[in-house]
Amino acid sequence: MTLAPTAPVREATAYDAFSRRHIGTGESSQRRMLDVLGYGSVEALLDAAIPGGIRVEEGRPSALPAAATEQEAAAELRSMAGRNRVRRSMIGLGYYDAVTPAVILRGVLENPGWYTAYTPYQPEISQGRLEALLNFQTMVADLTGLATANASMLDEATAVVEGMLLARRASKSRSARFAVDADALPQTRALLAARAEAVGIELVETDFADGLPEGELFGLLVQYPGASGRVWDPSEVLAAASAAGAVTVVAADLLALTLLRPPGELGADVAVGTTQRLGVPMGFGGPHAGYLAVRSGLERQLPGRLVGVSVDADGAPAYRLSLQAREQHIRREKATSNICTAQVLLAVMAGMYAVYHGPDGLRHIARKVHDAAAAVAEALGEAGFEVLTPAFFDTFTVRVPDADDAVARAAAHGLLLRRVDATTIGVSLDEVTAADPLIAPLLAHALGHEPVEDGAFGLVGYGHRAREIEPAALQRQSDFLTHPVFNTHHSETGMMRYLRYLAGLDYALDRGMIPLGSCTMKLNSATEMEPVTWPEFARIHPFAPREDVEGYLELIGQLETWLADLTGYDAVSLQPNAGSQGELAGLLAIRAYHRANGDGHRTVCLIPSSAHGTNAASAVLAGLRVVVVACDELGNVDLEDLRAKIAAHRDDLAALMVTYPSTHGVYEHEIRAVTDAVHDAGGQVYVDGANLNALLGYARFGDFGGDVSHLNLHKTFCIPHGGGGPGVGPVAAKAHLAPYLPGHAESQRGGEEALRAPVSAAPFGSPSILPISWAYVRMMGEEGLRDATGAAVLAANYLAARLGEHFPVLYRGDNGLVAHECILDLRPLTAATGVTVDDVAKRLVDYGFHAPTMSFPVPGTLMVEPTESEDLAELDRFVDAMAAIKAEADRVGAGEWPQDDNPLRNAPHTAVAATAAEWTHPYARDTAVHPFASGTAADPATVTARIRGKYWPPVRRIDQAFGDRNLVCACPPPESFA
Amino acid sequence: MTSIEDLRYTSEHEWVDARDGVATIGITAYAADRLGDVVYVSLPEVGDTVEAGTVIGEIESTKSVGELFAPMSGTVTAVNEALADSPETVNADAFGEGWLLKIQYTELPELLGAAEYQELTRA
Fold it and tell me: Block means of pLDDT (10 residues each) for chain A, length 978 residues?
């Protein structure tokens, strides 16, 4: 007999679908939301919102496999991880295996309280990670011996490029020449070459042993220690260069600087490098935090983000981002750099590594590494090899008969070496290899010469014999990390509690919605996050041989294919490690394409006035000239002005950069007319993918005229924001631009890719976080991604409809609908009541929310993006809060509360403020701190839970001007809190 | 000091107090107000020669950056050193203590009168 199934199979499948975990609104909630909007289905809503001309054709075959469940995706990831091989890396070149203290691994990298936070633009609710970043800045400044460090860079090679650009800005020399150490890291030299050419800088490769090159320079780069491992004293070279008006940049290894005289003491103006080896996994190339520090007087030239100390409304010390006016959203094409994202999560880890180990611990680790390197060099020397590096910290080169043979022999013993040339290998020790007392005899044995008898036993106890670093004149004498924070949390209990304390100060997605327009703060699911810390993804050197990374290459290949299919392009490069770098890579591809066609004179880049400032900054760094195109009163590209600008630049038009949906959060109806006009004039169309979350599954950039785009995997594809980085900004292009996408000499895929110029230090950028986006696409499938887009657009329109009763929605598209976000115009409210955008944003904290995006892209407005991941209850809680705040503002407007003393102007309210012995304000204490308890439709149990679980901001409103006028960017002394 | 009515102005919101071949230059109160809390002022060095209409400095607030244009060609004879420590003076006393620099010139271009400038800010 046959048994009929008791329930339809489909229902079980639907229950297991990841999309119903990722999308916050279920069917019944969506129905209620659609009722408010007057649409019968999500499909009908999207039909009305998205212009018909750009929709993907019905039934288009998808390259994506059908959605996997969470368990299936995890199993596939396990299988791919199994095809990576973790061997002991002795390759060096700026990447070292590191021991991540487990308390930091769990407490930071695997903790949603840290990784789901946003960039600390709302400093009052970001004091925890701002303190952690201040620790990072203090650590970098101390170790490099310089005055001020920023809050991290994307990677070492990018940091060197930024150092070079800083030198050009700061140098009084008009020269266009920059001298580069011949012993600099090869990936750094490759990136410098690619970037310098675009901005008209001439590089002069120099062996500084022979002194400075002839002729004037605006700056120079010294690698310290060198890529070969060589330790030498560059102070005379630096002094001579400074005397000649050049700005000097030293790329330095921070672990080495615990033992070596730091760049600041040697006369460097700028120090750059990476903090990867301070407890951050290699991850096949990233993400890690690069660093950049400057001497006193160059602070205002620093690119990227900089944390500083200011005071709050009570005069208490409080942290914030300093000097933000330097950033691209203000300065656009005149910005100091196109880089916005930092690597906050990784910088926090590196800073905590220093907090946990302290100065003595770091010195101890450095000595261990140095001792082991000396022991290995000695063993190889005794085995008959010629060690070519006389003085070194952790790396040296060795002459061998046949380098390929030597590398292969070592690999067979599980050791990866660097092939320098046909008869030279590089050997590099780190925290992990140094812990193996047998590493020296093992390597000597592997290379085919037995070490002399006592070589294997030349040990002290179970470690290597202690040796002082040479030359003696370069031994570090100065103290570092003397601040109490680096000398307190050395027990695991202490560290665990310090991490918990800091995370507790911050508002991240684990507390509630972060409705930041243009930032897409959606779910970063646990299943997506788990593989990041698996050793087979985490402990892989970016230049490991191909046979060690087959699993990675498969994952990368699949993700590239899927992203290309979803966006309508032919090729994708995952190398750019931030959106800004994706923009740069795309614009460099356009430039290279024009030049290859004999159109090198095409250098004008049209950018709408509404564009994100990074667009303009990236265009300048790609060697293009920015011409601004006006927008009409609806926020769309002004077609008439576009046509006029195109006509004026018919002969030198290179490209148009356009964001779709627009930065105003609407589906521009005329996008095809825009892209056609540019193409007709011989230009290329760059579509900024920042707002892709409103399109996925419904429309593709490549189908409506895009030639190239960058995507933000940290927005649309679930990589967490990490409190301000990491990001991944892949660049996707049509076939004609594909030959100009980033490549890398060390790419394990070889071929033509190995001949193309890079945009990051590592061949695949930040691969260890790519499993997140892979898992998201794998678990959603084409249909799930489409459902997510529908849910995101529905949520945004629901908020626009309900909030529109209280605040005008500034821009709407077809049928009065918005895309995935909406802009609330607060200017009429400010005019009527004096209540500002700041007041509303800070008051939202008292209601338990992170503020929406403030004053971008239009001053005096809030841009709200709920994403698909929030449920209806959370959306309604936000509507309630905004409505209540509007009512409070009206009371100010009516004169019931004074302009300068009301719950909005005094927001946010701390526990200290609310419990002050004397309460003089014209509103009650519970109005200050529990305003959400009254006037809500929520049930009593929910209200009680909200009161008990209330998020208390640790500081009151922060004085922005004070912090910028009194720049302090290192940990303040404990007395300042008195 | 010359009264606000008697100063001359540029369309870049700078005021000019020109006498005996030396012009004292600052930004107007209107401009300082629009910029918001000034936190940093970057000025040329004494002895620099400047060309009319070119950018010679920057005025940075917490939310914006304004460029300073040379109203005339000439040589910088003085800069307001006090602004390094207290840039907020530009907000507090734009026409007085908040002056920015002095330029020695040989020729003065055509500048706006107070009424004309006021007309400009009303537009």
Answer: 52 82 97 98 97 91 96 98 98 98 98 97 97 98 98 98 97 96 98 97 96 97 98 97 97 98 98 98 98 96 94 96 80 81 96 98 97 95 94 98 96 97 98 94 85 46 78 97 98 98 98 95 98 98 98 98 98 97 98 97 95 92 95 89 97 97 92 96 97 97 98 97 96 98 98 97 98 98 97 98 97 94 97 96 98 92 97 97 97 97 98 96 97 86 94 96 90 88
ipTM over 0.95: no
How many angstroms separate the CA atoms of A23 and A807, rounded?
27
Contact predicate A307/A133, CB 8 Å:
yes
Q: Decide if A330 and B64 are in contact by the 8 Å CB cutoff.
A: yes
B12, B55 contact by CB (below 8 A): no
In order of their start, the domains of chain B are: 8-107 (2.40.50.100)
Residue A350: CB atoms within 10 A of its CB come to 29
User: d(Cα A970, Cα A263) in Å, to the nearest integer?
Assistant: 18
- Determine the pLDDT at residue A450: 59
Mutate to test the interface with A, among B37, B39, B43, B86 (most CBs of A within 10 A): B39
Looking at chain A, which residue has its C-alpha nearest residue B35? Answer: A325
Domains of chain A (ranges, CATH numbers): 107-353 (3.40.640.10), 546-778 (3.40.640.10)
Pairing assessment for the beta strands A177-181 and A202-206 based on DSSP bridges: parallel
Two tokens at A321?
């981002």
Number of Cα atoms under 13 Å in the Cβ half of residue A504: 9
Structure tokens at B105: 């010139």
Distance CA A421, CA B60 (A): 51
Quote the minimal CA–CA distance from B5 to chain A in Å. 30
Chain B closest CA to A297's CA: distance in Å?
12
Question: Cα separation of A324 and A308, whole Å?
Answer: 11
Q: Considering CB atoms only, which of B63, B64, B87 is closest to A965?
A: B87
Q: Residues 66-95, chain B: which have Cβ within 8 Å of A?
A: 86-88
Q: What number of residues does chain A have?
A: 978
| Cα separations in angstroms, B19 against A30, B46, B80, B104 | 72, 19, 18, 10
Note the pLDDT of residue A457: 44
Q: Out of B40, B42, B86, name the one closest to residue A964 (CB).
A: B40
d(CA B105, CA B49): 10
Identify the closest residue of chain A to B88 by CA–CA distance.
A965
Burial A817-844 (b: 16+ CB within 10 A, else e): bbbbbbbbbbbebbeebbbbbbbbbbbb
- Chain A positions in Cβ-Cβ contact with residue B60 (cut-off 8 Å): 323, 325, 964
Contacts of A960 in chain B (CB under 8 A): 37, 62-63
